[in-house]
Amino acid sequence: MIEFARADQIAVATLAQPARGNALSESMVEDLIARISECIADGSTHTLVLNSTGSHFCTGFDLGTQPPPPQVAPESQAEGTRSLAATDGPLLWRFARIEHLLSLLWNAPLRTVAIAQGRTWGAGADLFAACDLRYATAQTEWRFPGAGFGLVLGTRRLASLVGQGRAMDWVAHGRRIDATNAMSAGFATGLLEDPIQWREHLPLLAVDRSTYAQLKAATRPDFNQADLAALVGSAALPGLADRLEKYKNSSKPRK
Predict the structure, then answer these.
(1) Rounded to 5 degrees, what are φ and ψ at 112?
(2) Pair type for strands 119-121 and 133-136
(3) pLDDT per position in the chain (255 positions), as tens?
(4) Which end of the chain, C or N, has fewer beta carbons within 10 A?
(5) CB atoms within 10 A of CB 210
(6) b/e for 3-29, b at 16 or more Cβ within 10 A?
(7) For residue 14, what are the CA distances in angstroms to 31, 98, 167, 234?
(8) What is d(CA 74, CA 76) in angstroms, rounded to the nearest whole number?
């Protein structure tokens, strides 16, 4: 569920599924895409804020809505790949839509702001990284676990913020990033004592939306095609659903 409000040229999209850690379900991703597209189309909106309800910003990809494997007829069980492809396909589509969501945020011709607290993992960490201004609390923790099940998602955007070496270390080694490390790396813009009071910390824009969009385009690389290609290439190896299931059952955070 996404709550949406707009006032004084600022739009606020709130992830409001706290019982599931605000993990991104298929419907939440589509709703966010629609809301961001609305803000892009509305020239009067100069800032879009992403925040959340509950203890966590976003715990990643919602595994609870993964479609069940289809029934396989006995005569096709020996081949195996039909069931595998049918299961992998919907997952690949969902990850592709998340990549589209991230690209919209990264290239949006308006100011985008993330307000994070608690667990900001996986796709939630990627949402955070895709925004222009990135605020968090001292208790926020980030993880990028996608590589643990063979998925490459958003790594170029992360590297553009914290550097190639640090991004590689965080992703390849499953690091847990605390607020101190996020601030020293330039990943977090600032820390808030109370995420509800984000308006008090939001700087006034010194330029109009059109100028901001031009400044953003001039200073931010466009990774759209390269990121999508990396995602599809990593997910194309048969067995995505199986890898994701194994990761869900066996992976534990590592420092």
Answers:
(1) -115, 140
(2) unpaired
(3) 999 999 999 999 999 999 999 999 999 999 999 999 999 999 999 999 999 999 999 999 997 744 444 443 333 333 333 344 448 888 889 999 999 999 999 999 999 999 999 999 999 999 999 999 999 999 999 999 988 888 888 899 999 999 999 999 999 999 999 999 999 999 999 999 999 999 999 999 999 999 999 999 999 888 877 888 888 888 878 888 888 888 777 755 454
(4) C
(5) 12
(6) eeebeeebbbbbbebeebbbbbbbebb
(7) 11, 17, 27, 30
(8) 5
Give me the amino acid identity at 11: A
Q: Measure the N-to-C terminal CA separation of the chain; round to a whole number of Å.
A: 32
- Give the side-chain half-sphere CA count within 13 A for 9: 10
Which amino acid is present at 215? L
Residue that has been written with the tokens 């020996």 in this structure:
78
Q: CA Rg, the chain, in Å?
A: 18
Structure tokens, 64? 């609870």
Residues forming a β-bridge with 116: 136
Measured in degrees and rounded to the nearest 5, phi and psi for residue 34 equal: -65, -40
Structure tokens at 248: 């869900």
Look at the block and give the residue holding tokens 């600022």. 10
Six-digit token pair at 65? Answer: 């809505």
